């Protein structure tokens, strides 16, 4: 597409300013533009009209927690990281995801040193979704709440930022670190990461509410897969879950990731979280390498995974081995399960994750000046019909 | 003068849009032959714009060879403010039609030199060959554009300081905060509109009834600036029943008796 060409997406509804409205979307040089300015200041008309056939245009989905997909596991596929990353980035376009944070689970220091420099932030396009930076989930987590993470690899945070650098090597490509705030040294680590512009997320933790509030005051802004790998809600100590309704200074919003795949979070729990704190909800897939694979048995690394009924099992058993719901499915499920509006369901996968990373002026929105990353949805069932990055169509069903 | 009395404001919208449609169609505009339209903002003409957009979408009218000149704009109001007339015209009309932005003229209330902006507006109208049809609405005090009571009937496009009454009436659009209400506006003068070949004024609602009475039953008076159009050779006033409440029965009966003649003005395939 030539530089300066104005595209007018017409015959559509768009999500802007928290409202779905009958409006055209105007794009130039990869950005969303204000057509009124162009009309009165530049006195030019759109060069190319694009008939959207009545579809709903919303910002592209942003996934802050995804371990892999399409047969690739970011934490295990260490020798061939770039190719694996590219494969996932490309596959996600069909799910309406235009940017994401590849996630590394608790790993040994040499793995971080090998893999982390290769998972570089990268502008998306036809080749795949934009890579925003790595989500480092661990290894500074609680042994009691390790979930599927390897207990022997869990590291101590006693020396604060020195511990971080000793384990990770470098943090240039990181955008989120999930840690347990009750660990000794966590305060210093949270402050240091926050200063570097890295989002601190609380998770895999035994923290009580006091420890959670303290961590937020140090700079943490996110909770990793709410309900999973943390203390269950108790009425005398609501734990990290209590952060959703805790008294907090007005300028702090705590966001929380939630896996809305219909399996990992019960619809009733989903509704509780959503009703208490609707502005903080962030849909994450937390998907494993089996995301995007056909039904049947697959050999992934050392593991045999069987996909049936859109769930992933350890082959030959009924043991779930992780989430494989696409972001598009999570949005649909969240809307049905929570009874929220379409706007709220979409913003939980667009605006809110962008806010977590402080990118909400550029991503997760169709406001003027933002990146033209968007998806066209079937207006009734919200299925992805096509995906655009920087104004370019990168996927069509 | 013609006064067309219709049952409701939606009929006023319909009628006036059909009139514009017919005028432009008959004119047969083309690359060397532009139709020049003067345009108002506000609540009254909104329905007319909606209808014109409908006609455009149905392929019955094109604005490709139409030049437009808007009556007025606030001074110093950001253009993307919902009360700015740029915002109004873009959202309610221009973005829906095929007008060339080069031909859509709205006074720039943020111009560095406001007087020069007004002079250039007058010049542009002259260069376009004058306005064929100027459409206007009126305020309850009988003002046309921002030519408030007491404005000279010989006025041209200029900077106008707004009356206290107008500021107070406008406060509701600016969070009821008087300090946010623009104190000045750029407006075409009464004489600028008088120069048009034809003037069509839309008046709807009971709150405009007294102004309509002043406009057509009393003498020409700068305290009711719209009354100046009594002296225009081709003035067409379109009103609804509500707006006639202050008129004499005789006046209403006279103009209603002419309704058959008036309706011929918007018939298709006639002259």
Automatic annotation (TrEMBL), chain A:
Keywords: Carbohydrate metabolism, Hydrolase, Metal-binding
Note accompanying the cofactor annotation: Binds 1 divalent metal cation per subunit.
Gene Ontology MF terms: metal ion binding; N-acetylglucosamine-6-phosphate deacetylase activity
Family annotation (InterPro entries): Amidohydro-rel, GlcNAc_6-P_deAcase, Metal-dep_hydrolase_composite, Metal_Hydrolase
Classification via PANTHER family: N-ACETYLGLUCOSAMINE-6-PHOSPHATE DEACETYLASE
Family from the record: Belongs to the metallo-dependent hydrolases superfamily. NagA family.
EC numbers on record: 3.5.1.25
EC class of the enzyme, as a word: hydrolase
Active site residues per record: 286 (proton donor/acceptor)
Pfam families in the record: Amidohydro_1
The protein, known as: N-acetylglucosamine-6-phosphate deacetylase
Positions that bind Zn(2+): 137, 204, 225
SUPFAM superfamilies linked: Composite domain of metallo-dependent hydrolases, Metallo-dependent hydrolases
Cofactor(s) the protein requires to work: a divalent metal cation
TM spans (from-to): none
GO biological process, one term: N-acetylneuraminate catabolic process
Domain Amidohydrolase-related: 57-392
Reactions listed under catalytic activity: N-acetyl-D-glucosamine 6-phosphate + H2O = D-glucosamine 6-phosphate + acetate
Entry binding sites for substrate: 148, 228-229, 236, 264, 320-322
UniProtKB/TrEMBL annotation, chain B:
GO molecular function terms listed in the Swiss-Prot or TrEMBL record: glucosamine-6-phosphate deaminase activity; identical protein binding; isomerase activity
EC number: 3.5.99.6
CDD domains assigned: GlcN6P_deaminase
Gene Ontology BP terms: carbohydrate metabolic process; glucosamine catabolic process; N-acetylglucosamine catabolic process; N-acetylneuraminate catabolic process
GO CC annotations on file: cytoplasm
Main location: cytoplasm
Matching Pfam families: Glucosamine_iso
Top-level lineage group: Eukaryota
Cellular compartment(s): Cytoplasm
SUPFAM superfamilies (alphabetical): NagB/RpiA/CoA transferase-like (SSF100950)
Glucosamine/galactosamine-6-phosphate isomerase domain residues: 9-230
Pathway: Nucleotide-sugar biosynthesis; UDP-N-acetyl-alpha-D-glucosamine biosynthesis; alpha-D-glucosamine 6-phosphate from D-fructose 6-phosphate: step 1/1
Keywords, alphabetical: Carbohydrate metabolism, Cytoplasm, Hydrolase, Isomerase
Gene3D superfamilies tied to this protein: 3.40.50.1360
Reaction equation(s) it catalyzes: alpha-D-glucosamine 6-phosphate + H2O = beta-D-fructose 6-phosphate + NH4(+)
Family: Belongs to the glucosamine/galactosamine-6-phosphate isomerase family.
Quaternary structure, from the entry: Homohexamer.
Protein name: Glucosamine-6-phosphate isomerase
Species of the source: Frankliniella occidentalis (Western flower thrips)
Gene: LOC113207499
């Amino acid at each position: 597409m030539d530089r300066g060409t104005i595209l007018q997406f017409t015959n559509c509804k768009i999500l802007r300013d928290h409202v779905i409205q009958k409006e055209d979307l105007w794009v130039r040089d990869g950005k969303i533009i204000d057509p009124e300015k162009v009309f009165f200041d530049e006195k030019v008309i759109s060069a190319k009209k694009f008939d959207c056939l009545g579809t709903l245009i919303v910002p592209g989905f942003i996934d802050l927690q995804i371990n892999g997909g399409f047969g690739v596991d970011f934490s295990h596929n260490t020798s061939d990281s770039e190719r694996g990353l590219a494969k996932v980035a490309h596959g996600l376009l069909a799910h309406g995801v235009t940017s994401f944070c590849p996630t590394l689970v608790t790993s040994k220091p040499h793995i971080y040193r090998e893999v982390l420099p290769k998972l570089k932030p990268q502008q998306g396009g036809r080749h795949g979704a934009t890579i925003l930076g790595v989500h480092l989930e661990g290894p500074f987590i609680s042994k009691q709440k390790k979930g599927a993470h390897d207990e022997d690899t869990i590291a101590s945070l006693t020396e604060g930022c020195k511990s971080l650098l000793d384990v990770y090597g470098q943090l240039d490509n990181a955008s989120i670190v999930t840690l347990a705030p009750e660990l000794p040294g966590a305060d210093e680590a949270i402050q240091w990461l926050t200063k570097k512009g890295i989002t601190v997320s609380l998770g895999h933790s035994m923290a009580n509410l006091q420890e959670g509030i303290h961590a937020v005051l140090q700079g943490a802004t996110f909770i990793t897969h709410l309900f999973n790998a943390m203390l269950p809600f108790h009425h005398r100590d609501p734990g990290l879950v209590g952060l959703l309704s805790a008294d907090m200074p007005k300028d702090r919003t705590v966001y929380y990731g939630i896996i809305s795949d219909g399996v990992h979070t019960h619809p009733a729990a989903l509704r509780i979280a959503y009703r208490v704190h609707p502005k903080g909800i962030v849909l994450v897939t937390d998907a494993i390498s089996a995301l995007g694979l056909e039904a049947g048995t697959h050999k992934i690394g050392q593991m045999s995974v069987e996909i049936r009924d859109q769930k992933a099992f350890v082959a030959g058993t009924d043991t779930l081995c992780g989430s494989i719901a696409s972001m598009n499915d999570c949005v649909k499920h969240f809307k049905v399960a929570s009874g929220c509006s379409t706007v709220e369901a979409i913003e939980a996968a667009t605006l809110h994750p962008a806010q977590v990373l402080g990118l909400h002026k550029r991503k997760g929105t169709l406001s003027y000046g933002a990146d033209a990353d968007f998806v066209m949805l079937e207006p009734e069932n919200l299925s992805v019909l096509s995906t655009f990055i920087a104004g370019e169509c990168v996927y069509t069903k | 003068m013609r006064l067309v009395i219709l049952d409701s404001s939606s009929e006023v919208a319909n009628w006036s849009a059909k009139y514009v449609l017919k005028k432009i169609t008959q004119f047969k505009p083309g690359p060397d032959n532009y139709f020049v339209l003067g345009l108002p903002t506000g609540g009254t003409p909104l329905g007319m714009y909606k209808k014109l957009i409908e006609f455009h979408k149905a392929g019955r009218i094109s604005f490709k060879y139409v030049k437009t000149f808007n009556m007025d704009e606030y001074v110093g109001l950001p253009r993307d403010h919902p009360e700015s007339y740029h915002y109004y015209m873009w959202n309610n009309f221009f973005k829906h039609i095929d007008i060339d932005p080069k031909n859509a003229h709205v006074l720039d209330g943020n111009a560095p030199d406001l007087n020069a902006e007004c002079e250039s507006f007058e010049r542009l109208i002259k260069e376009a060959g004058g306005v064929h049809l100027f459409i206007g609405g009126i305020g309850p005090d009988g003002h046309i554009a921002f030519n408030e009571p007491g404005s000279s009937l010989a006025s041209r496009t200029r900077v106008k300081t707004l009356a206290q009454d107008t500021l107070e009436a406008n406060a509701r659009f600016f969070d009821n905060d008087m300090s946010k209400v623009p104190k000045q506006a750029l407006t075409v003068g009464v004489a600028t509109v008088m120069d048009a070949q034809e003037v069509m004024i839309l008046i709807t609602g009971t709150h405009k009834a007294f102004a309509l009475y002043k406009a057509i039953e009393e003498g020409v008076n700068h305290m009711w600036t719209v009354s100046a159009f009594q002296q225009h050779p081709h003035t067409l006033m379109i009103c609804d029943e509500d707006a006639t409440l202050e008129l004499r029965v005789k006046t209403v009966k006279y103009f209603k008796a002419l309704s058959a003649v008036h309706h011929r003005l918007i018939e298709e395939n006639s002259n």
